[in-house]
Structures are given as C-alpha cells and as structure tokens.
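assembly run, all chains below
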Amino acid sequence: MAIQRLLIANRGEIAVRIIRAAKELGITTIQVYSEADKEMLAVNLADESICIGGPHAKDSYLNIENVVGAAIEKAADAVHPGYGFLAESAEFVRAVIDAGKIFVGPSADTIERMGDKVSARQAAAAAGVPIVPGSKGRIDAIDEAAVVAAEIGYPVMIKASAGGGGRGIRIANNEEDLRTMAPQAQSEAAAAFGDGGLYLERSIQSPRHIEVQIVGDGTRAVHFFERECSLQRRRQKVWEEAGAECLDTATREHLCDTAVALAEAVQYRGAGTVEYLYDDASKEFYFIEMNTRIQVEHPVSEMITDTDLVQEMLLVAGGGELSVSQKEIKKTGHAIEVRINAEDPHMQFLPFPGIVTKLKVPRGNGVRFDHFLYEGYQIPPFYDSLIGKLIVHGEDRADAIRKLALALADLEIEGLKTTIPLHLALANDACVQTGAFHTQWLEPWLDAESLTKGAAS
Amino acid sequence: MTTILSPLPGTFYIRVNPESEPFKKAGDAVSVGDTIGLVEVMKTFIEIKAEVDGTFVEYSAKDTEPVTAGQNLAELEG
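ok done. output:
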C-alpha cells in the first residue's frame, strides 16, 4: 500500500528534506512541532501540522506517546523518523506498528539486532564482513577482559555493549590500563544504559572512516557507493565526501559488496549505512556498526548517483520494490558536504543560537544547500546546532573543493556565528586538498590554531 | 546586590543532575569563578560562574526552565 499521509516525526533541515521528497511523490505531509518550533520552516511547508508538546525534546520529539498520538489524531498512514530523536528506537517502531501505521525504516527487530554491538558484529561476521578483532560476546568479569585483551592485542578499546554514539569509549594501552578502566566503564555503562556489559576490540591507530549507503526492500539490497567522513571533531562528522579517493577499485568493490551482503542477510528494508574503519597502511577495512536510518550526510551519495534516497525509502516502506538495480546505479564525479552549525569556531565551538537577519544562499550547477532557515527566523536553543548542509558536486575531487570554496564564500548567514570560516580554512588546507587525513587529524589541527592562522594568511 | 545574567538562551539548571544539591544555597559564600548554575544550549552545557565575591541570595530563574540571553539567573549580596 503506497503511503498517502506521512507524519514527519522530526524537525530542522531533515524535516524540510522529507517534506520535499514526499510532496514530489504526491504524499500529503503532516509536520509535528514542539512549542518552541511553531515558526520553523517545515511547519510552513507541510500540508498540515500538529503540536506535540513542550520545547524540551523529552516532552515532544522524544515522547513516543505524543508522536504516535499525533499520527493517530491526524490519520497518518506512515511515520518518517528522520535521524536522531526516535529514529533508532525499537520501542517507537513497535508503537507505530501497533497503532496500525507504517514505520519508514527497518523492523523493530532489525533495529535491535543492529543497535547492539555484539549482535551486529555477529551478523556482520556471518555475512562475510571483516570485523575488528574483538571479544566474541559481552564481557562481565575483569579477569576475562584481561585474557581476551591479550588475545586481541593492545591497544584495545573498551566499549559498553549497549552503548552508542562514541560515548564512554576508553582506550587501554596495556593490562594495567585495562584493569583500571574496565571497572569504570562497567559502572558508567550500568548507569547510562542499565547494562554493565562490556565489549573489547582492537584500537586501530589513525583510521579513516568509510561508510556505504545501502537501501533494501526486504528482499534485495543495493548500494549507492561509499562515503568518507574522516574529518571529525569529538566523534562528530564535520565534512563528508562521496566517494572515498583513498580506496583502490578492488577495495571499493569489496567494501560495497560486503555492505549489500549484510543488508540482504538481515532482510533489510529502508535506507541504512554500514560504517567501517579503514587502515590506509594495510588497505584493510573493518565493520564498526550499521546505522538503521537515513543519515545527515546522505546528500553526497544522492549527488554522485543522481538518486533521491528519501523517496526510495518512502517507496520501499509503502511496500514497493527498489526502483533501481545495482547495474543502473552509476557514479559520476565527486561530492562534498560540510555541516554548517550555529557555533563559533573561534570560541571553542560555543553554540550561537540567534536570529537570522540576512540569508543569501549560493546557487550554481552542482551546488545544493539543505537547511531550514529564513530571514527573521529565531533559531531555538533547545536542539542540535546543525542549521544547514552545503553540498557541492564536481567533476572530480579537486573540482568539488574549488566549488565548495566558492559556494562557502557566497553563503551569507548574518545574525549568527557559524562554522563557515572553519570550512573555508579546511578547503584551503594542503592536507585536506591532497586527502592526507584520518579520524584523528582534525582535532590536533584545531588545537594548533590552524583556523586562526589560515584566516590571517 | 549583584545579578548574574545568562550569556546565552537555553535551559537553566541549578544542579549537576536531578539527584544533586543545588550549586548554591541562600547564605553560601560565593567567590569569583564559583559555578552557580548551568545553561544548556544546543546540547552543550555552559557553566555560569560568579564574576564577583559575595553571599548567595537566591536563584531568580527556575531550575530546568528556558531562559533568554541576558536574563537574570541569580542574585548575590556584597
């Protein structure tokens, strides 16, 4: 049954993105909003809207009862969760299904299976995806952890089995470290997730972050090539590219094929991302996790493959088959996305919510700006600082970087501090231009005050 | 009387977590640099610090409630 009335259970730029995709498919859009979000762009663009509670996310966007209640009241037949908030909550998926609605994403069981590090690793290994040497299952005793760590080889990462988002990860360089850190990690995991189970894996030094975009219809899955997201600050992606120039053709094909194999093995339905660490020196890649949602950086994959991934999600959620075969998905050129945050990069990235007094959006062939801004809009302080994503598509990587620098210079957002100066400095940096970076590169670069130096020169 | 103002809009907290004691109570001595509260803005917690010495009088903004930039958060004497 094709979707007719879609509730958008998110806010900000992704809500705008989903509305645009849905409208093109002739779907009626219903936007939820918190009391602090009455004035947001998605509310103006949607066909209908409904308030779901107070400004704090826990009272609105994270409140399952309120969101599902809104879907029922508005007679929606489907719910798109976007990213963040309830997008990867199996409990939310079950509540949506129990209310007789379609959830635009995988099943609750798949979300649970891929959301748990241990079961996700098992699924990956079973599908033939290389995994980082690590513990076979959860670990509850410190002596057991020491034995396993010796087998894996130091340095090892200590993670919470139930955790996510990089929280609470510790790196032990030797057994002494491990014996100090493991009990801390256990109590922290118990406090944060109600489960003190740990999980160990080898820490790969200075890896790159490579990920593969997949979409499945429950039977068949296809990939839309890979992205590289190695430029990160505090484990948050800052700048993302499609494809990853560091890969040779054979490695790229193997990487993308394993992602499809994993998606098909779990009968994946919806858009998802399989994330890997890549070791430049050995040319080896290892599975980290699978994200069972559309991701912030999906536009770069759309640009190089001329696809609308959100529409593809809506088609398969409505019971349709994938609209394309793997052979039909062709890659052209290179795309880059930079995250424009309302933060002051010269002041330790202090958030800067404010009123947009002037907005000038760059235009041009291969230039796209996904955002939720308009002149006079007061950005509320209660949510994420992401206000827009500037995406460029060039003939090759060098062309994309040139386009990016021009588009950044043309993008004017007055009334706020934003991360535009950071991206301009990165676009002009020699290491960025040659692709000589990894996931541990950006923070020391910032600590060395390269941003200030770049602006002065 | 000295007032401590919020530098940013956000959500005000008078304690580190719901189980903790408030940072300051009426009559507490306050030194320059003491944290008197937190403002959460876009998922980042900013410590609000006293810029003068004095004695704590009261919080003028409510715990866990939204505050605007420039809003009075607390009052000190001395």
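The first strand of chain B starts at residue 2 and ends at 5.

Strands of chain B lie at 2-5, 10-13, 29-30, 35-41, 44-49, 54-59, 66-67, 72-77.

not gonna interpret more than that til we talk
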